[in-house]
């Protein structure tokens, strides 16, 4: 299995799937994606098992860390271990980075999928960070959990985490009108 960068022309197919798999409050507009994808720090990586296109992950590559902005396995390829394989390939693909962050919905009793998603990350070695995290959107932000998977067995301190969040917000969410206020409530 391998992760192969997908160009912007093939993003339409992926965006169609994203609309089906992600809640609207977590999904950027197609126009925003198209702008972000013009920068080499923002990448769509296709998950290929031989010739089978099984899924995708969208990555923001910061100075020292990466963020998995989105990860999804196509419906016909789910429950075959592809999600776990993606997480195992990230350290190989991004050898010069210290680790990867994941924004994960808070566990909710009304939505059993939230516990399943959180368990996916912890089962694959990620640790939930003890930080108040807010996913920026124009509705004031969405409280989420932030998870971290180390590539070098070291955990970043709070200043490193906040520095990466500021770097990430400055790139991914500069179109959000209240981004500074949201950032000031993280920590």
What average pLDDT do the residues reach? 93
How many H/I helices? Answer: 6
Regions with little confidence, pLDDT below 50 for 5+ residues: none
Largest β sheet strand count, sense and barrel closure: 8 strands, mixed
Order of helices and strands: EHHEEEHEHEEEHH
Portion in beta strands: 25-35%
What class do helices, strands and sheet pairing give? alpha+beta
Count of β-strands: 8
**Terminal CA distance:** 37 Å
Helicity, as a percent range: 25-40%
- Inertia-based shape: globular
Q: Radius of gyration, rounded?
A: 16 Å
Describe what you observe in this structure:
The N and C termini lie far apart (37 Å). Helices cover 34% and strands 28% of the residues. The mean pLDDT is 93. It has helices at residues 11-21, 30-36, 82-93, 112-123, 158-172, 179-184, and strands spanning 2-6, 42-49, 52-61, 65-73, 99-105, 127-128, 133-135, 142-150. The chain has 6 helices and 8 strands. The longest helix is centred in the last third of the chain and has 15 residues, at 158-172. With 187 residues, the protein is α+β, with helices and mostly antiparallel strands. Strands 1, 2, 3, 4, 5, 6, 7 and 8 form an 8-stranded mixed sheet that branches.
Keywords:
single chain, 187 residues, alpha+beta, eight-stranded mixed sheet, 6 helices, globular
How would the blueprint of this fold be written?
Blueprint lengths: L1 E5 L4 H11 L8 H7 L5 E8 L2 E10 L3 E9 L8 H12 L5 E7 L6 H12 L3 E2 L4 E3 L6 E9 L7 H15 L6 H6 L3
A few lines on this structure:
With 187 residues, the chain is of the alpha+beta class.
């Amino acid at each position: 299995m391998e992760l192969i960068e997908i160009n912007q022309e093939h993003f339409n197919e992926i965006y169609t799937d994203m609309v089906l798999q992600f809640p609207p409050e977590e999904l950027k507009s197609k126009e925003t994606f198209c702008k972000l994808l013009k920068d080499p720090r923002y990448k769509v990586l296709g998950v290929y098992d031989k010739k089978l296109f099984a899924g995708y992950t969208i990555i923001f590559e910061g100075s020292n860390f990466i963020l998995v902005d989105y990860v999804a396995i196509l419906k016909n390829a789910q429950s075959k271990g592809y999600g776990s394989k993606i997480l195992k390939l990230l350290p190989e693909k991004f050898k010069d980075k210290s680790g990867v962050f994941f924004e994960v919905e808070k566990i909710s009793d009304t939505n059993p999928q939230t516990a399943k998603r959180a368990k996916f990350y912890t089962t694959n070695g990620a640790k939930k960070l003890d930080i108040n995290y807010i996913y920026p959107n124009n509705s004031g932000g969405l409280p989420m959990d932030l998870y971290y998977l180390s590539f070098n067995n070291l955990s970043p301190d709070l200043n490193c985490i906040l520095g990466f969040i500021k770097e990430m917000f400055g790139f991914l969410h500069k179109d959000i009108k209240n981004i500074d206020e949201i950032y000031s409530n993280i920590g």
